[in-house]
Amino acid sequence: MSLAQLHYTSATYGDGPESSEDAAIPARFSAVDAAIPASALTEAGPLLAYEPPAGTPRQVTDNALRALPESFSFSVLSDGSHLLSRTVPVRTAQLSSLRFHAHAVHLPAGTQLPGGMLPITACRSARWAAATPDRIPAVDPVTALTAAVGRTGEREGLNDFAVSRGPWLAGVLADLRRLSETAEPSRVVLVERQSADVARWIALAAAVLPPECSERLTFTTYTRHPHRAPQHIVGVLSQDAHELSGSGFRVHTCTGPRPEGAVDDAWAETAARIWRSRTPELFREAAELPGEPFAAGPVAVTALCAGIALGPNERAAAAGWAAERPYALDAKRTRQLVDALTAPGVDDRTGAEFDAAGRLFAALDGRSPATTTAPLAAMLVTEAVRGGNGSVELPGRTAFSGSQGAVVAAQLGPEILTELSGTGTGLDVARTVQLLRVARLLGVDCAELLPGVVRRLAPALLADAQDAPGWAPALLELMDEQFDVRTALLGALDRIAPENPAGAERLLGRVALPFTGTQLLPHLRMCAEAPEVKAGCGADRVGAVHRVLRAAGMSPFAEPLVLRTAVGLVWEEDAPTVAEARLLLDAATSDAHRTAGTWSHLVAAALNAPADDEEAPELAHDLLRGFPQEIVGRSRGALLLLEFARELRSGSAEPDWAERVRALRPGAEPVEPGVLGHAFGALAGRLLAPDGPEAELYALAHSGDADLIAAYDRAAHGPDVRARLTAEPGYAAGCFAVWTAHPHAGTEWSRTAAALLEEVLRPAVRALSADGVAAVEEAVGRSGSSGRAEAFRDWNRRSQGTLGRLGRRLAGRVRRG
Predict the structure, then answer these.
(1) I need a labelling partner for 167 at 20 to 30 A (CA). Which of 132, 301, 433, 704 fits?
(2) Which of left, alpha, beta for 14 (phi over 0: left; psi -120 to 50: alpha)?
(3) Are 420 and 453 in contact (CB under 8 A)?
(4) What is the mean pLDDT of residues 746-756?
């Protein structure tokens, strides 16, 4: 059955103007099969029209005519049918006027070319007409196409063309793949000097693309206006490519400089290498292998087995595909693939390629002979040692049981021992773990080096701050494979855990180390238990310490360092409160705290206590008594200030309080505000007490110490003093006497005393009843001369701002008395 044909021509003499070089050539349908619908003809006209290259004269010679481009097109129409056509330039014999003739066949929707022929194949038919026949022949150009189109000479010509377009091959194929996989409107534009070369490009692509994609691929080998062309592949000359821009065009100028850089498409790169190797028959072999359309694995495997060198991405694709389908290749091709992947002299292998090779080894191990898998195993361990690739999936130990394993061990063993003996080993966790594992695989004895390696490796494990360290799986495999390494490493971690319990806790939270054996490992057990304990105890941190200690299985009296680990786990960098510190001190002897070093946490609790924590001085006293040799320097001076505050509050302090506190302060500098608040506050409180010694008050007033006097001022402004002033006339009288008794003590005292009289005493006296004021006046008189009572009356009558005159008057009366 022949396909419906049509002819569209302007070749008849007298059909249009014979001049105006760039004018459009008028045309008409000169012959149309009745089976072609009228709607198809409406769309066909613009697709079949021809416009010669710019500057082409209307009058052309035979040689010039042969040099003009032809347009071979395969287009889809709106009703789903297709139009396969050839449009060629022709000229009239009388005037040599340039015209064109288009010959096309129409494929109804849902039909294909005879025998599954690809549209580009029909380009080679000899039955395309250059003029309208007297009658449409019974056989169309496609159906009449013979098997001669596959001649060897034509195949060689296509190979030559592929080699000549090698730099552009991968890019064009990658764009065609994207075009086939996406529904977005896009066109691949090929800029060539001859339309026949565009046809060759399409033939190259048809041999590579999956059949279902090749059948749907529309194209035109030549057009003057590529932005109007609806086909997928559009061929243009150089002078018509300048107008192309935008994301809808993928332009490949094959007449210009070679493109730079590789194409990130393993399928396209592999297909390009196959074409450049002149072996397109490999595409048929690859199509017989399982895989999705455009999968790089089948073509990459086929190319490698044929001896074609590929890049790292393509080799990784081949190894990954074979690892997923180890049954897809016979023994011969499997060995060919392994030999290609492990070929010596390849220096561009990537991590992804080694990962794929590791998966391939795992898939072939036990399925293929050891002679096949041994090169893969050797390559993997060589990369692990020499390439520094910590993520390589190592083969099993049985892979090196044969003679080749001995060869690899002889090559890599000295390198492994040299690196493991270096001082830097252990700092890079992944590298050290990898070397130890490879040493075991190859039977390299590194027992003498193990203590040093583990001693450096253990701190590095604690120092790694990653939430999910990449070396964790390899470390667990190492500890599972090598009992001696596990024992030594767990012991080292347990020994350093007291110095960094938080780090050990983080490590165990990220990596489930296997320490459930017979080793005691008290510190690691505590670190493993700590998160749950702290969550369960909440704010009861002392309770958490006791529970964590129980997890150790050892008493702090027998092993004091567990106390350090427990305190570090619960408080980390923080200090306990004073109450918590006193409980901790009672929970263990001072000897245990001394050995564990936790006494420093207790000292920090005392020094950081707020000034209103009444237990801080008691804790300071206990610490000075319990750790007399350990607490030195400024910490000792600060604790002595706290202890002095305790003595003041208990009434056991020796005289000369102000001098004593001022003498202790320099040894505590820089002193914490809370410590100073305790000492100065205790002194001020004792001086403001009803029985405050007059001599100590005198010493304070005349000390000139701004901080001491300020502490006294703060205490005097406190609620206890205010309440006592309104409740005890004798106390109010005493305060009046003190705050007016030392007018020559210095600026600090004078200013403070004046403020206390006006801000503290006056409001209290004004709040009293008349009888209350009289009682205070009477108490003032009993405590001093009649002049002092008169001074009080005078002060009580006066407003603010008279303290200077009052002080001078009182001073004169005191001198006269």
Answers:
(1) 301
(2) left
(3) yes
(4) 93
